[in-house]
Prior knowledge:
Four Helix Bundle (Hemerythrin (Met), subunit A); globular; cytoplasm; chaperone; bacterial flagellum biogenesis
Amino acid sequence: MPGYQAYQKNKYETASPHRLILMLYDGALTNINRAKQALDSSRQADAHKFIQKAQAIVFELMACLNEEQGDVIAKNLKEIYFYLVNQLTQANIHKQKELLLESETILGDLRQTWNQLGKEVANGNG
């Protein structure tokens, strides 16, 4: 396995659960950004591929939820994730960049909140 691939594999295998969620948010945001660029360049097939990747990541985020422990917060996040999947589906069907922008904003806010929560827990405030 080449060095870079080994590094990437190790990065995921050794990441904390908190870091893994951040990586999922980053992946979704990256794919939404790539989809926007593809739409701007009239590369519909590429936009479709990137939107599908973003959707798959949102489904993975949904699978990470623990509704028993997370109670109302987990249930609310699940609803937000379902909303995002729907928005991404509509963006893919209608090739609407505005829906991608909305999804990007929501995911960016969630990522920022998750990152801040991790800092507070690390500092003993959470």
